[in-house]
Amino acid sequence: MLCIFDYHTDPAFNLAAEEYVLKNFTDEVFMLWRNDNAIIVGKHQNTLAEINLDYVKEKHIKVIRRLSGGGAVFHDLGNINFTFIMNGEGEKLIDFHKYTLPILEVMQKLGIPAKFEGRNDLTIDGKKFSGNAEHVYRNRVLHHGTLLFSAVMQNLTAALNARPEKFDDKGVKSVRSRVTNISEHLKEPMDVMEFAQRVMDHIREMYPDAIAYAYTPQDIEAIENLKKEKYDTWEWNFGYSPVYNFSHFHKTEGGFIEVAMQVDKGIIAAVKFSGDFFNKSDVSEFEQMLTGRKHDQEQIRELVKNVKIDDYFVKATPDDLMEVLF
């Protein structure tokens, strides 16, 4: 087994690294890594339905889609991520208990009564500190999990405080749980990197053939290319979302404006405005301007800069339109 203690904190790089190792290595691998502030959404989720978009923009939080299914999670430098990439056959590849057991054993060594609960969670006193997900590629499985150690909980809560009532879609919805930090339950204090080292030491004890591995310059180049081509793109992080219907309304000085949109692969396929607003020009003209564009704040804000919004919605401002559309 190769053991990788990765010190990169760019979430797009780290998720690209997982995919690169999964698909290009043949060795079994254990990885520890941390991300700077980021929301990591599940492969089958509608990204916009999972995040508090205004908060994410204000705090410059990156939003990245991962290879595995499951729900959205918040990462910061107080959160450790672990990854097993193992070889096997068929149904035997999927085993949440097997790959979370080493974490429970580390917790037991620290005197913390942690346990496996539900489908894929680790908890302390009923509060979640680790969520886990898996992805199978040929005869290899990628199992990864979060370990909340000293995460800033108010950021976690605020970043994932979405408005699901705006969306009607078939994307997998996240289930919010009560959460806790491991650091709150320690008998003796330690920092996040000391805890990470405890985890790595335990894995090295479990697997006598384990050897440390550092990415080569060729590895780094390949990971950076995958990051650029996939994990840094709007098309993967937002456009990959399932088809969804979006509806929302907002009261402006000139009256209520309501919108109904159908979005496919992140692109507005159809849009209709209604409400008790007044207009000087036919609203269908503005609807046509929106059709075929990304359901993306930056692109639509650029559009409304060059449109006389007051012609279509009397006494409404560009900011009013952004409030309606997101």
Can you describe what's shown?
The chain has 326 residues and is an alpha+beta fold. It has 2 domains: 238 residues, BirA Bifunctional Protein, domain 2 (2-Layer Sandwich); 82 residues, CO dehydrogenase flavoprotein, C-terminal domain (Enolase-like, domain 1), CATH 3.30.390.50. Helices cover 34% and strands 28% of the residues.
Short description:
The protein has 326 residues and is of the alpha+beta class. The protein is built from twelve helices and 15 strands.
What order do the helices and strands follow? EHEEHHEEEHEEEEHEHEHHEEEHHHH
Spatial separation of the terminal alpha carbons: 46 Å
How does the overall form come out from the CA principal axes? elongated
Rg: 22 Å
What do the pLDDT scores average to? 92
Relative helix content: 25-40%
The CATH homology group name of the largest domain: Bira Bifunctional Protein, Domain 2
Major beta-sheet overview: 8 strands, mixed
Oligomer: single chain
Output the CATH class name of the largest domain.
Alpha Beta
Number of helices: 12
CATH domain fold name of the largest domain: BirA Bifunctional Protein, domain 2
- How much of the sequence lies in strands comes to 25-35%
Tell me the count of domains: 2
CATH architecture descriptor of the largest domain: 2-Layer Sandwich
Which keywords apply here?
alpha+beta; Enolase-like, domain 1; four-stranded antiparallel β-sheet; eight-stranded mixed β-sheet; BirA Bifunctional Protein, domain 2; 28% strand
What topology does this entry show?
Blueprint: E1 2-5, H1 11-24, E2 29-33, E3 38-41, H2 47-50, H3 53-58, E4 62-65, E5 73-75, E6 79-87, H4 96-109, E7 114-117, E8 121-124, E9 127-137, E10 140-148, H5 153-159, E11 167-169, H6 192-206, E12 211-212, H7 217-231, H8 234-239, E13 244-252, E14 255-264, E15 267-275, H9 283-290, H10 297-305, H11 309-312, H12 318-325
Parallel strand pairs: 1-2, 1-12, 3-4
Antiparallel strand pairs: 2-6, 3-5, 6-10, 7-8, 8-9, 9-10, 11-13, 13-14, 14-15
Helix pairs in contact: 1-7, 4-6
